[in-house]
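User: Last request for today: this protein with lysine, please.
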Amino acid sequence: MSYPTNEVQHLTIDGVDAVTLAKTYGTPLYVYDVTKIRQTMRAFKAIFEKESVPYVVSYASKAFATQAIYQVAQQEGIHADIVSGGELYTALKAGFDPKHLSFNGNNKSFDELSMAIEAGVGTIIVDNFLELQLLSEIAAKNNMKQDILLRISPGISAHTHEFISTGQQDSKFGFDLLTGQGKKAYDIAKDDQNLNLLGLHAHIGSQIFDVTGFEKNAALLADTAQSWGWQPAIINVGGGFGIRYTDEDTPLPESDYADAIIRTLKGKAAQYDWKMPEIWIEPGRSIVGPAGQTLYTVGSRKDIPDLRKYLAVDGGMGDNIRPALYQANYDAVLANQPNAPTEEVVRVAGKYCESGDVLVWQQALPRTQPGDILSVLATGAYGYAMASNYNRNPRPGVVFVENGEHQLVVARETYANLTALDKKYTLGEADV
Ligand SMILES: Cc1ncc(COP(=O)(O)O)c(C=O)c1O
Ligand SMILES: N[C@@H](CCCC[NH3+])C(=O)O
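Assistant: Here's the final one, the structure of the complex with lysine:
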C-alpha cells in the first residue's frame, strides 16, 4: 500500500502534512478529510438521482456527532439521524434544519421527545408502544400532528459482530413482527389524530459486506406494509454499509448497496401497483469512517523475545474503544515515514491501565523511535463518538482538513475540563 506523502516524505491528509498537524494541535488527535466525506455524501445521493427515485440520505450521526459534521451534512443537502437529546442539541446548535432530522432510539425519554417536537424535528422513528403513547400526548399538547415511521425488528440476522447486529428477532430495537407487535403498532398509529404515519423502518446491523440482507430487508418492509393493506410513503432500510479497516475487509462500492435497495423496492412498487415510496438510508460509518484517522505519538516499547513486541502510544481505549469492545482490526502507518520498508510486527497498545487496551492487534512497521507519529487509519466512525475519560484522560481534539487547509473543530479537553463538573464533598468528615 502506498500512502500520499509530501516533499519531506511525511504522510499527507488532503494535502496537509500529518506530522505538522500533530505538532500544531498535539496528540492524540482525530483528523478528518472533509473532501472525502463530501465525496461519499455525494456518491450516495448520485445513485438515487441517477435512478430517478425519491430518496433521503440521512447521515447516522451517532457515528460522529459534532457541530462541524452537521454543518457539512447540511451543506451537502443530506439529512441527519439522531438518537439522543444531546445529538439533537448539537445539530440545532450547528444550525441544522430540524425538519431534516429523524430521531431513532429504543428508549427516548419524555423530555427528549418533547424537545424534539418543540424543535420541529421532521420525523420520529417510533420504536415501542410507550413511545407511541408519549408522542401522541406530547403532539396533542403542542396542537400538532407529528410525522412518524415505525421501526420494526425484521428478524434478519446480518453477518457481522454479534454486538453490532440489530435486525435479529432477539433484539431490543423495534416492534417485533413475528409476534404481531408491528401490526398492533400500525393499527394504533394510523388511527391516532396526532400522529402522521408515513412509513416503516428497519436496520439490520452494521459493517455489512453483501447486499442480500439489504434486499431482504427492503422486500420485507414492502411485503409487511402490503400485508396490512397499506401503501407507505417512506421505506427506511437503515444503514450498516461496511468499510475497509484492513485488507480483510472487502466493502462494496456505495452504489452496489443502493442499487440493490432501489431495484428491490422498484420491483415491489411495480408488483403492488404502488406509487414509488421514498427510499431512506441511514449510513453512518461509511460516510465518516474512512475519512478519519487518529494521530498518536509513539512512546515506550516492550519486547518479549519470541513472543511479542508492544509499542505504546499516548492514546488508547479512551479514544478508540472498538478493538477492546469488538476485537476490531485497524491498519496503522508511521506518519513521518509512511512508505518506508517495514521491519517488525508490533502490537500497538495504549496508555490505559487495562490489558485489553489495544489499538492495533498486529501491525508491520518500520523500526520506530519515541516521538514518532503513528496514524491509525479509518477511525472516523465510532471513535470520537465513543470516547471516554477513562483513567481521567482528557479526550483529544478534532481537526477538519480540506484542500490543503486545516481547522480545529473540537478543542482538546484540558485537565480543568475533567474536574469542571466535580463538586467538593462537604458532608461528614470529608473536609480535606
Ligand atoms: C437505526 C440505525 N441507523 C443507522 C445506523 C448506522 O449504521 P452504520 O454506521 O453502520 O452505517 C445504525 C447503527 O448501526 C442504527 O442503529
Ligand atoms: N458502535 C458500533 C456500531 C453500533 C451501531 C449502532 N447501531 C461500532 O463501532 O461499530
